[in-house]
Amino acid sequence: MPRPIARVLTLLELLQSGGIRTVSELAERLNVDERTVRRYAQQLVDLDVPVESVRGRYGGYRLAPGYRMPPLMLSDDEALAVLLGLAAGRRSGVTTTTDTASETAAAKIRRVLPERLRHRLDAVLGSLAFTDPPGKAAAPEPAVLLPMADAVHHHRPISIRYTAGDGRRTERTLHPYGVVAHSGRWYVTAADLSAGEDRTFRLDRITGVRILPGSFEPPVGIDPAKRVLTGLATAPYRHEVTLRIQGTAEQIHTRLPASVAIVTELPSPGGADPGAEGWCCVELCVDRLDWLPAALSSLDRPFVIEGPDELRGLVEAFAERLANFARRSPPQP
Question: Does pLDDT of 53 surpass 80?
Fold first, then answer.
């Protein structure tokens, strides 16, 4: 490709990244003088690319807002980022479209890439391995996610139809605070006006989102991600576990994540050594207790079981099994 044509395409790529680019900046990036930049910009205009000239101290060139470029121009890094994002999103269950949509999007990108780059990216994708199985969670429909996100952004109330885990269907009016992706699922945290309390809802169980007139003021300093994690950790389960563990909340969350455990740092008792490690109160709601002894062992922190007594027996039995394994002699050849 002749150098002038290559530079014109590079100019187009720079303008595609958005914003106003000054003539001096473009001249430096293209390694030409400012007069040549103006000539290249005019060549793009002659090709019906809507390049706008912006006057003033901070003026330069930009593409007309809302213009969709017919050619797909991606650098090697950008193409790799897009294809890896599609692959990882499909595996993790976070992609908000069907597997077919992800595959066709990736195929379209491959089709317009240079052959050299296409083969290299296919080699990268073919060599990837994942430690977790593909995400099985149902992704939210764009017809649900898009109006939901719009309502969150503009603080608009919404009406939804929701199907609970037991199959019960209800209509609810929400003040949505935020949309959160967690462990392959999508959630919205909101004030549920129908129930008079804050709730967390799975987006894949929502249908018929309708934005209502009016607006609302969300609580100050709200953290939607934290609310979702707290909601998951406090959902009704078979067992309620209360522990005291010596260490920081960060150390404890390495084995008991925030979606499972609520960790509260406790004040040091009077007369305690200022250099001694503090303790935390840890509360969990779980359906099964059998995994907790191994998790507590892997923490390698002092702990006290406040309840239930059943967990104390499981920990003792786990410790006895470990002791028996440690006392075993290696098999004789």
Answer: yes
